[in-house]
Structures are given as structure tokens and as C-alpha cells.
Amino acid sequence: xxxxxxxxxxxxxREIESFMNAFSDGENATNDAKITELAKAIEDxxxxxxxxxxxxxxxKPETLPDVIELKMFEKKMKRKDMAKLLGISDTxxxxxxxxxxxxxxxxxxxxxxxxxxxxxxxxxxx
Length: 126
Description:
Layout: H1 6-24, H2 32-49, H3 64-74, H4 79-86, H5 90-97, H6 105-115, H7 119-125
Helix pairs in contact: 1-2, 4-5
């Protein structure tokens, strides 16, 4: 058996589903060969015609501002809220995020203790 159209594919899926329902209702599975044939035909059709979505690729943060932005997203926080959590002004956090100000030791400690940012990453990227 070979499935060549979407209509045949849908029909085969319905048939398989009816066999599965009959089997789960306690009926004797006398159609094993038919089920196997349908399953193989469905699989072949899907291999040829069904496009699987690409997996979502999440880019690893490469800079401290990227990490802070990721943490803000994870915690559903705005910059103002993140600044408050870190104990710094919104202006200072903005400067750090835009690369106008370097991370000092106190902020590095807070990033580690409050957000769990890897200390090695902080030292390498600041």
C-alpha cells in the first residue's frame, strides 16, 4: 500500500485510529497485518511530505548585558525592577547594559548572589 495524497493520508489515519479504539475496547486484534501495513504507509508518506518544524535554538548569552537581559526575561522584570533588585540606580544599570559603564566588584557580587550568574563568566566578560 502506498499513500500518494493528503486525502488517502487522512483516511489511513482515521482507519488506524478506529483499529486502536477497537483494540482498546477489548476487541480481539485480528487486523495486525492491516495495522502494520497502514502504519508503514503513513510513515512513508510523512517522511516524504510532512515537514517537521525546526527546533528552537536559544543563543547563549555572550556578554554581561546579555545575561542581565536574559535574567530580566526569565523573571519577567523591567529594567527598573532589576535595578532595584540589584540595589543600583536605573541609570547605572542602563549604562552597564549599553556598555557605557564597567561592572565594579560590588555589582559583580550582586550579580552572582542575586541572579546566580557564574563568577567566572562575570570576571571574563567585565
